[in-house]
Amino acid sequence: MPVRPLVSYSIERIEVLGEDGTVDQGLMPSLSPGDIKRLYAHMVLTRQVDERMFKLQRQGRLGTFARVAGQEGAHVGAAFALRATDWLVPAFRETGALLLRGIPIAQLLQFWGGDERGGKFPKELRTLPVAIPVGTHMLHAVGIGWAMKASAEDAAVLTIFGEGATSEGDFSEAMNMAGVFQAPVVFFCQNNQYAISVPFTRQTASPTVAQKALAFGMFGVQVDGNDVFAVYRAVSEALERARTSGEPTLIEALTYRVTDHTTSDDARRYREDEEVAPWRGRDPIERLARYMRANGLLDEAGEAEVLAEADRQVAEAVAAFEALDPPGPEEIFAHVYAEKTAPLLEQEAALRVRLAGGTSGGAGGTSANEPAEGV
Length: 375
Ligand SMILES: Cc1ncc(C[n+]2csc(CCOP(=O)(O)OP(=O)(O)O)c2C)c(N)n1
Description:
8 strands, binds thiamine diphosphate, Rossmann fold
């Protein structure tokens, strides 16, 4: 009996824009000069929002949040390929993608400021709320894709997650469902090489995330995640394939988390600066700017203008955010379900009693944090 190979598979990596700002013309996606300028402006805006959020957090004016600096090439490039009729199903490190969808900066500040109302994105933007539970949202993306397929919609779903999320069972379930039912979903992994303190090599024994596509019968590819042209090319092709034939795709954008995991983390406790420093030199915005300068799309005055416009938008949003009346703590019950369940109503009532100075939640009492007996 012969031994013969059953499956042969190779994983490709796409790079279009080099660190020196030159491009591989054969691989360059179709983007007009105006598109490239818009991409750049969005990446700069994302960076300015991120930096201002960091300052606000340090001043105690914003809660814990996950920074995106250094990952703009990945998630802005991916979201740039979406049409208004497509869906975005994000995790929590995609500020730039949310801004591109039209979510107001002030609303993002509201969300990360702990105001529950900020999590309710305008329905017409076809963007699910930020998903803090790691990996759970990929299943929602497949549900949406499957439903769109059933109603023959000419649209697709982009879901974004970190490489840490690929170790959750939800990832395998979502990928399997999408593969079997051919749900038009693009699975976009921002592999920033850390899940809090866990490095990629401790996350999986697989050398790439992209090759995980093989087991689920779908196409997988790796792109340089700091190369916005490679990202845009891979995602727009995958979205088009999803829209026309329903085929799902897994895209791994290899990048690096140059910041702490969140504002509550200190990455110096688990990695050396020598490892981080070269990645700071691979900045996706600077790389795009080099290309634009060499091609007459950006000069010093233009750069200053883009920055000033971003700062203007950020300042306006911060003022709008700070002028909001913060809601009372009861607000935490308002957005859990479309209709409050009996246990939620009971907990809400208990909280109201406590806020009014009634039941203390001491021995024998009902704490607002604990369900009442029988719930
Ligand atoms: C189900 C679940 N488990 C654990 C956590 C705590 N947690 C928050 S972010 C994170 C790491 C996520 O890493 P990755 O998916 O690579 O995304 P990244 O933070 O690098 O963008 C963990 C473990 C969580 N939010 N949800």
